[in-house]
Design brief:
By secondary structure, this protein is mainly α. It is 77% helix and 0% strand. It has one domain. It contains seven helices and no strands. The longest helix has 21 residues. The radius of gyration is 14 Å and the shape is globular. One of its GO terms (biological process) is methylation. Belongs to the peptidase A24 family. GO terms for molecular function: aspartic-type endopeptidase activity; methyltransferase activity.
Length: 150
């Protein structure tokens, strides 16, 4: 696999974030998002070595609203944990850990749109690839980046 397409995507995301004067979390989400999406699409895994530092960094970036960020992380992660517990075949543990970190970067009113948009993206990937099993991480990352940047 060549590094040109991921580098192009990363540069595009950073350019859009710069033009929109997006918060620092947008740049962090772009970098980690490209790497995590590639890993998840290829290996169907979201490694802790990437998801946990992302969660910590996103929470630190929200120090000015730490209480709301921690609550959003708990709500978003908890909702994904509930899906994982009720239907383990639908979602992996890495998705739950990723959702905790991503929730910290979003305001509470954006959590439902993030869940809906991430599901739409995941279904779109499934339709494009005609696969029955597709990872949910790229959808989570794309939805969060869009909502955090706009």
């Amino acid at each position: 696999m060549t590094t040109v397409p991921p580098a192009f995507v990363l540069c595009s995301l950073w350019t859009v974030a710069a033009v929109l004067d997006a918060p620092p979390s947008s740049y962090l989400l772009a970098w980690f998002g490209v790497v995590l999406a590639l890993v998840d699409l290829r290996h169907h895994r979201l490694p802790d070595v990437l998801t946990l530092p992302l969660a910590a960094a996103l929470l630190l970036l929200q120090s000015h609203r730490l209480g709301e960020a921690a609550l959003a992380a708990a709500v978003f992660g908890g909702a994904h944990l509930a899906v994982r517990r009720l239907r383990p075949a639908l979602m992996g543990g890495g998705d739950v850990k990723l959702a905790v970190g991503l929730g910290a970067s979003l305001p509470l009113p954006s959590l439902l749109p993030a869940a809906i948009l991430s599901s739409v993206v995941t279904l779109g990937v499934a339709a494009l690839t005609r696969a029955r099993r597709v990872p949910h991480g790229p959808g989570l990352l794309a939805a969060t980046w869009v909502l955090a940047t706009l």
